[in-house]
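User: Hey, quick favor. My workstation is busy. Could you predict this chain's structure for me?
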Amino acid sequence: QVQLVESGGGLVQAGGSLRLSCAASGRTAGINNIGWFRQAPGKDREWVASVNWRAGETFYEESIVKGRFTISSDRGKNTIYLQMLNLQPEDTAVYYCNAVTFWGRGTQVTVTA
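Assistant: No problem, here it is.
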């Protein structure tokens, strides 16, 4: 079992920034890829970014990220981050951390115009 706990969401104005964190615990040794998804009201959950915890490679859904988000990890803390810059109202969603088949409960990001 892997437990994932997100934090860092909040309410920001358009153009603002947030940094999300996801702390993993439990059987983390089995994790290769860990990343972020988001789900806006009335929409399907969509992948945002991932990091390969062993190789350090990062992957992005460019249609969403558009050069504004950066995923990073601190393997020693079993934590990943999503630095989000220049947030826009369309980024409003619940952001979820995912590893293998495990999900966190999500953290709400709300961006006002």
